[in-house]
Amino acid sequence: MARHGECAKVESLKRKVPDLGAVTDPQSFAALMRKNGYATAITQQAVSKGAAFEVIVPAKELSLVFVTADLCSTFSAK
Prior knowledge:
The chain has about 80 residues and is α+β, with helices and mostly antiparallel strands. The protein has one domain (about 5-75). It contains 2 helices and 3 strands; from the N terminus they run αβββα. It has helices at about 25-35, 70-75, and strands spanning about 40-45, 50-55, 60-65. It has a 3-stranded antiparallel β-sheet with strand order 1-2-3. A hairpin with a 4-residue loop joins strand 2 (about 50-55) and strand 3.
């Protein structure tokens, strides 16, 4: 999810993380950041449907929320 509830593809992270590779989910993103030596926190967030994970990488100034497509469509419908 982007700011203000808009949804963006994971690929949009390539501007901050050029070596993004085949990352498709929050767990693989967190693993990549840890592999590259960055302290990374990942927490699951309570949502009414779908799934949401917050991933924080302080050294890269990233605070991201990964959501499933069904949750994203809920926000875009509003």
